Amino acid sequence: MSMKWYLHKLAMMFGAEPRKPTKDEETDAARDLKKLQKSPEEVVKRKEIIQHELDYPIVSRKWMYFRWTSILIINTMFIVSFSWDVQLVEGALTASRFLGFHMADPTAALQVTLAYKDLMLNLLIGTVTVVLVWWFFGGRAFCSWACPYHLLAEWAEAIHLFLAKRGYVKDHPFHRGMRVVLWFIFMGLAFLSGYTVFEYINPVGIVSRALIYGPTLALMWVAFLLSFEVFFSRRFWCRYACPMGLTYGVIGTAAPVQIKYELEKCVHEGECRAVCLVPHVLDITKMGYAQNDVDYIAPDCTRCGLCVDACPQQALSFSIRGFDKVI
Length: 327
Description:
single chain, alpha+beta, 2 domains, 4-stranded antiparallel sheet, globular
């Protein structure tokens, strides 16, 4: 992969639009495959495959159920530990101790450091621990495999799609760069005010604490966000606003666990992009957008596996990069 193309993938995480690779970024293998896929015989074959998929759809929800189970288990551990005083996990998802080991969300930890103008040892240890875990699995994997708000937003998205299909609502996208602006705003507010301002409106922390310690009026803000996503902007918080998602995205820029894309298997029907939480990372699956015959999805990917479930051709798969092992 050329450095220019890699930097473009990073830039997409900060709001840049996807684009086709230039001639110097495109490998010979990708160029040859694209030329083959545009031949009359392959075009006819691709249309037949797509029509067969439409006539006999294959529905898989394997990775979705794995994720839901993961989210439920992780958050149930907090609830059980507090309710039964097990002391397995103490605290909430944004700051906790697991079997005595400190765990701290990097975004929250940075806010605390900026607010108090002091780097606390326990906070540093907890942050490094979390960073190492989510670096391996892919930074934004936290969003789809651990975050309780993500699960609620996924159900809200299902309602939005149901209503949109019947013409009752319409999606109103925002610029993805807004997330970067909000990240700097909240870090600046922490530094200037001495308070972790973002944590007062962070739906991840609000939902996590409500599950563990009981509901508060802060859940009204969460309800507003979910309603906004149902009726106005699909997956607004996760796609356009959440500073945590940006932090974890940066952490996972060179993660071993990746979604691998194989150009040779792809028929470019777009089922993967239709289900993706962050569809800009899957523009690589459009005709002419691949840089190589085998490539990896951009760092903003949440590793949710929805695209893997949706692709009948198995052009997308979980992989441990460097070991050439498909999960």
